[in-house]
Design a protein that fits this description.
Elements (H helix, E strand, L loop, with lengths): L1 H10 L22 E4 L6 H13 L7 E3 L5 E3 L1 H4 L5 E4 L14 H9 L2
Parallel strand pairs: 1-4
Antiparallel strand pairs: 2-3
Helix pairs in contact: 1-2
Length: 113
Amino acid sequence: MLGQRLRDLYLNPSSPSSIRGIDHTIVDNAQLRVRADGGGEGGVIFSSAVSLLQGLFPPSSMYNMTLANGTMIVGPMGGYQAIPSEQYPRSLPSRSEHSRPKSSQSSREMMYL
């Protein structure tokens, strides 16, 4: 549900908060980078990020591919758009604990794709 709400807010061309230039129907992996904490919660944060992406970019019959023999097919599972996501450890080597954003700040940053 959160993914759908974010989609309506940021990927709907008629929304005043729409992000200009981002494809609102089919995910363009060159426009999106997804990183989620893979820390000590058993992967629940990472799994939540993947679920959010499913609402943000739902299956679409427009998500298709052309096979080597020239046949065009709709992506698997009715056009499911698999979005590459990176899982990083709780402690990032490049940032000290003090410079890491607070969770509310991180959430706001995440919403601005």
